User: What shape does this take?
Amino acid sequence: MMYEKIVTITAKHGIHTRPAALLVKKAKSFECNIIVECDGKQASAKSLFKLQTLGLYQGVSVKVIAEGEHAEQAVEEVSELLITLS
Amino acid sequence: MSITGIVVSSGIAFGHALHLNLHHEKIDYRVINTAQIPIEIQKLKKAFELQKHHLHQVLIKLEPKTSHFELIEADILLLEDEELLSQIEDAISTLQIRAAAAIERIFAHQASELEQLEDPYLANRAQDMLCLSHRLIARLNGAQHLDVSQLKQDTIIFAHDLTPAEFAMLPLDYINGLVLNTGGITSHTAILARSAGIPALLSCEYEQANIENGAQVVLNAIDGELVVEPSDENRVKLTQLMQHDVERKQQLLTLKDLPTETLDGHSVSLLANVGSLNEISHLADVGAEGIGLFRTEFMLMNTSTLPDEKTQYHFYCDALHLMEGKTFTIRTLDVGADKELPCLTPLIEDNPALGIRGIRYSLANPELFNTQVKAILRAANHGAIRLMFPMINQVEELEALFGFIEECKLELIEEEKGFGELSYGIVVETPAAVLNLSSMLPLLDFISIGTNDLTQYTMAADRTNPSLTKTYPSLSPAVLQLIKTAIDHARENNIKVSLCGELASDPKVAPLLVGMGIDELSVNLSSLLEVKSGLRDISYQTCLTLAKHALKIKRIEELYLYINGFK
Assistant: This one.
């Protein structure tokens, strides 16, 4: 079963290195695949390398997609982090 | 302008400054053949592992949750990033390029992608990517931030720090002196510099002087001073000092073939601490009577793969051949703590100095240890070898070791390979080893006191931390008491006591150690003649008096003044 959720980035400097690292750590705590999609580009939420290139600025909306074990919880927690990170 | 530092290897050196951490790596972009591909991928993974390990080490020293800490954590996440690694691996195999070229390509691509991001803050991360890529490429080149082609004659090296592995890769013929930001008298690089006779100043804050590459500098590693662009007057003075130093060294050479004995004829074995065949070939230059410590880990420093049994066997045979029947003491692999080897996967530990090091590492890696023990046993068929084990605390460890050696012998018998019997000893380098000696001595032929680690573990003071090494020197009441206890135990069991730490290399301290009852001193090649001179100028009676008084002194400073003021 696939889950997805759309959220808007609020962090002033966007999801730069440090918040992105926190996001990756969170994503890695889940077994399932988690994808972050922004402006037509996709990246694994577990890869800081790919995530960096998405350009997660303040104000852009992103879609979090997960499939597999605990996918729903993963989408919830990753989305939550995306909107609370600063 | 002059800058000070700690002298770890004495002498005067004139030369041109060269900074090592400039990241000027040249990258080889040529196409490789397909057979090379897996080798390059292997190297790539190793570089990632090494860098990751390095970053973990840095993290230990930082406050968690600070931005510095989290940025390093982010770098670690990148190094663990499968996507990143697989992109680089793909570049190596599909484009048939070297690991360094592939790293450069993938990171440069990533950086340009980041640069295109509209948010300037996010776009700035491109610089971080390039920085990480430089570090990784440096790791690939053996973590040596050095373009050797830049090296000219008469160079004085400046670096933040230098690992033993990096030092081992320097072309020493071109290097007149070494200046580091970090380190102290017993850091391993200091020991290596001393062995190589290269004047070195450590814990030196040279950045304040903004020394440019190529600038004329004089390293006065007698007074612990660095002089940049010296005045003519100063230059003359330093040249005289250098000549005086050179003359003293020549004068010492006349002692080379004389016996090591006190004025009243008490003789002491004066052996050398060495780590390479090259150093063994220089034993005769200083009249060393043998080797009291052969550091086998240094033979592994410049190689990315572990030498097999046959290679090691030939190596020890070559060493025996050069020794010409003199005392030859091999210490088994002593890795861990500040000694990282490119051919071994580094361990990530919170406290490496208290972790899997010395014999603990060997016993935890039986294949590695089996290869070394079998090679040494086979070499012993061609000449006498004394074998000693580092970081032994307990008799059980010793029993486990002897069981291990018996199994190695059985394997050799099965393989129909000849071997010889060894003499066995331990490096006494923890307080526990001293306290447990009575149970271990019946199993041993000799002991060798390693004062550097004994000091570190007695004082709980990191030997690589320069702000501690001054406060907690080896020449201190607690360490002397432990040495005395070890000697007393050994005496009761009629066991020979050697001392192989830096303490023995001090010509003022050597007579004290002899007075305390040490039978053998093992010192650096560059200190050997000074120590011999110190012992030949004193009587054994005086050594005994020195020891009797020194052991009663309770204060470090008083002890220092007593030993250094003693005529």
About this structure: Chain A is about 35% helix and 30% strand. The mean pLDDT of chain A is 90. Residues 38 and 62 of chain A are 5 Å apart (CA to CA). Residues 71-84 of chain A form the longest helix (14 residues).
